[in-house]
C-alpha cells in the first residue's frame, strides 16, 4: 500500500528522494524553508542541475503525487512517514553541524499526532538516530513512533539513475512495525530485486561513513600511486587498469585526479575521524587521507610553478569548476583550491564550466568568466583541465595553438589524448603520466 510521505529538505538528497518516492506511487509532500525554491519547484523547475530530474519532477507534479510547501508542521501532520533530508554541513570540530536536523526533530515533536516513522536520510554521526529516538520518547511519551536510519548512496550527476537502481538499500530500525512500513515505502525496489540490508540504527549510520571513507581512501591511494608514476616513468592508467582486473580490488574509483571534492567525502572523512577521537579509536588512516587530499589539490599549481618558475603575470585558463562532471556543484571543488593558489601567485585566471559558473562566482566574483573553452584559452599561457566534462575531450589543438600565448597543458583528469597536442607543439602534463614536452617528443620519435 502506498504511503503518505513528507520529505523535509529539498537539496540533492531530499529532492531526489521526494521525486523518486512519488514515482514509486507514494503521496509525497516535500518541505523547504526557502520560499523561492519552493515556488520554483511548484512550477516544475529544478533549482539544481541534475540529469533527468526535471522530467521526473514534472511528471509527478502533473500526476498529483508530489507537492511542495514551506509549512513543515502541516506536512508532518499529514504524513505516515517523515524523511529528514536536510543538510549537515561541516561544523567547527570536524563533526557535522546538526542545527537543521535538530530543528526538524523539534518540529516533529511538536506535531507528532499519530504513529509515524521518522526516517533519517541526512548523513549524521553514529549515535544520532538513537539520541533522536530518546529525545522523542521523552518529549512525546504518549505517542507511538519509530526512528529509522536510511542512509543515502546517490552520486551527484547520476542521482536519479542511482535512486531507481541502487546497489543496495540500507535500513537501520528497532521495530518490526517500522520495518514493515519501510518495506511498503520501497516496495518498487524490492520488486526489481535490489538487496535490502536490515540492521541496527548504529550499523546503518556506520555503513554510510565507512563506505564514503573507503572510497575517499581508494581515490587517495591511486592519486599517490599516480604521483609516484610521474617520477618513475610509469603510466598510471595501465597500473590502475591492471589493478582493477583483480576482482578483489575492482576498477571503480581508481581514476587519479586533482583530489576528491564535493559535499560528502571531505565532510564525511573528517566526521569519522572526529567520531574515532570521541571514542578513543585510532582513525589515523583516514586522517592521513584527509591531509593527502588537501596536498593533492595544492599540487596542481605547485607542479605548474616548478615548470614555469613563476606564475606571476601569466594568464591561466581553467576548464571545469564543478567538483566533477554533470553537476553545477562547486562545494570543496579542487578548482577552488587551484584558483586560490593561482590568484595568490599573481596569475590572471580565465575560467569556463558548462554548468557551474554561477555557483563559482559566489567564491570568486572577480576572475574572468568565459562563454566557452575557445574564449577561455585565448591568450592563455597555460591551460588547466580540472573537471572531466565530456565537451573538453574535443578541444581543438590547432585552434588552441593559434590563440594561446603559451604551450603548457595541465590535464589533471587525463582527459586528452596528448599526441595531437604535442604534435602542435604543446607540452603536456597529465596526472600519473611522465611530463612530456613537445621537443622531447620529437627527440623520442627521431630515436625510434
Ligand atoms: C559520493 C558517493 O560516491 C555517493 O555514494 C554518496 O552517496 C555521496 O558521496 C554522499 O555521501 O552523498 P558524490 O560526492 O556525488 O558521491 O561524488 P563521487 O562520484 O563519489 O565523486 C566524489 C569526488 O571524487 C569527485 O571530486 C570526483 O572527481 C572524485 N573521484 C571519484 C576521483 O577523483 N576519482 C575517482 O575514481 C572517483
Explain what the structure shows.
- This protein is of the alpha/beta class and 448 residues long.
- It has two domains: 4-199, NAD(P)-binding Rossmann-like Domain (Rossmann fold, 3-Layer(aba) Sandwich), CATH 3.40.50; 202-448, NAD(P)-binding Rossmann-like Domain (Rossmann fold, 3-Layer(aba) Sandwich), CATH 3.40.50.
- 46% of the residues lie in helices and 13% in strands.
- The strands form three sheets. The chain has a six-stranded parallel sheet, with helices on both faces. Strands 11-10-9-12-13-14 form a six-stranded parallel sheet. A two-stranded parallel sheet has the order 7-8.
- Helix 18 (418-423) links the parallel strand 13 (408-411) and strand 14.
- Helix 1 (12-23) packs across helix 3 (53-62), helix 10 (201-232) crosses helix 12 (265-279) and helix 13 (284-308) packs across helix 14 (334-344).
- The longest helix has 32 residues, at 201-232.
- It is elongated and about 80 Å long.
- The protein binds uridine-5'-diphosphate-glucuronic acid (UGA).
- The site of uridine-5'-diphosphate-glucuronic acid has 20 residues, from helix 10.
Structure described in brief:
The protein is α/β, with parallel strands linked by helices and 448 residues long. The protein has 2 domains: 4-199, Rossmann fold (3-Layer(aba) Sandwich); 202-448, Rossmann fold (3-Layer(aba) Sandwich).
